[in-house]
Amino acid sequence: MIASLRRVAVVGATTLIAALGGCDLGPDYKRPDSPTPGGWREGSSDPEAIWPSADWWRGFGSAELNEMMTVAQRANADIGAAITRVKQADAQVRIAGAPLLPSLTASGGPSTQQAVFPIGATPQVAYTTYTVQLNASYEVDFWGKNRAALASAQAAAHASRYDQEVVALTVVSSVANSYFQALGLSDRLQVARENLAAAENVLSLVQSQARVGTATDLSVAQQEALVANLRAAIPPLQQQYSQTLNALAILLNKPPIAVAIAARSLAPLPVPEVAPGLPSELLTRRPDVRQAEAQLISANANIKVARAAFFPSLSLTAAGGFQSLALSSFLGPGGTIYTLAAALTQPIFEGGRLHGQLASSKGRYEELVQSYQKAVISAYSNVEDALAATKRTAEQQASQQVAVAKARRAYELAQVQYRVGSTDLLTVLSTETTLFSANDQLAQARIARMQALVSLFKALGGGWQDGGNLNVAMVQAPAAGRGRR
After folding, report:
1. Is residue 8 part of a domain?
2. Domain harbouring 268, CATH code
3. What is the 3-state secondary structure (H, E, C) of 370-400?
4. Residue 332 domain-assigned (yes or no)
5. What pTM was computed for the model?
6. Residue 78 is part of which domain span?
7. Fewer beta carbons below 10 Å: N end or C end of the chain?
8. All residues at 6 or more sequence positions from 179 whose CB lies less than 8 Å from its CB, including other chains
9. Residue of 483, 477, 472 whose CA lies nearest to 154
10. Which whole-number Å values give the CA distances from 179 to 46, 223, 260, 390, 447, in the listed order?
11. Of residues 290 and 350, which shows the higher confidence score?
12. If you average pLDDT over every residue of the chain, what do you get?
């Protein structure tokens, strides 16, 4: 009889759980509308364009840079911290998923008690009860609160993975920029030293002429001032070079003294070709955009959690085991104990707490809608900026190379004419200054062009593609509007 009642209770509880499951308070997530440009202002939208590969930096043809990228991806502290954030988010998923399963605990041990009898009988009797018991409890997720909490944690875990990709892309881009900056500064230092040497040669010539009376002390003083200015320009460049190496050390997670660059010039490095594809494909290649949407999905699920808190919660508990006054009869038929219970809890007055939680969840969702739309627009703007920078810096470098050639020709002619006395020192000084400035500007133009290319690779997502981490079942087609929540 007891066994029959027990089976009926278990079957009844199982049926109740199945009947109550599956209720969902909504709202279902719908991706917000966002404008998609038909093309790029600064470049053609070629559907056949090859997007950057995951190791896009190899296109610059530097084995040294390739090695630095490998080290940075393995040892960078920011990437390491992002990986630990992923682990934390995964742990939160396990925590959030726990309420969807019953909890089971075990208890047992002796319990000594005393019984007090009426006057005239034995005053009190002590006895010990031995108990071993299993306790199970389960909250029926009728309104989908626990499922929504799990969905929110899963979306947050996806967001943490996208964040890791954003950090990794930022790190490798910073390594490339710092490396090119260092090589460019090395070029500028070389230019500065060559300019100083050339100016010192002219100073020697002017001093020789002054000794024989064909040049004035003013001419000597003017050239000495130019030499002093060129010499003073070298220490700041050396300082910038050291600071750039120190920045690389941080990115590589190495002591500054352990970082050195073998290459000495930016000029020999090839310039890779890169072109954007269709704007409509960009959003699936930007981990920051996917991160913003994952956060939005998580916030949407939290609205469901807040709504479910207004409704009753049903908890089922069960306990079973053995209890006896003597260990010898502990496992006997008469020692079996069990209980089944159900509890229904309905919030009545919470002082506005539940309404506040729901309003807060809705407000957070609306905030993240704005963040998502900003991420989308920023993605398109980043590409446009990088395309414009890449195009203009290439034009600037080409024009500057012509300017250097013309300035060098003018300087050489002025030197020849000055030696034969057909022009004055002022003309030499003017052409000299122009050449020195043009050489330095050319070195800076090379840096700007390389860094513009890095920015374009980064703006295009750096070869990243969504590996399907974001649950597509949680994403529906864009709605006509945001709708009421």
Report:
1. no
2. 1.20.1600.10
3. HHHHHHHHHHHHHHHHHHHHHHHHHHHHHHH
4. no
5. 0.83
6. 23-101+145-311+360-474
7. N
8. 62, 64, 65, 68, 248, 261
9. 472
10. 31, 35, 10, 18, 10
11. 290
12. 84
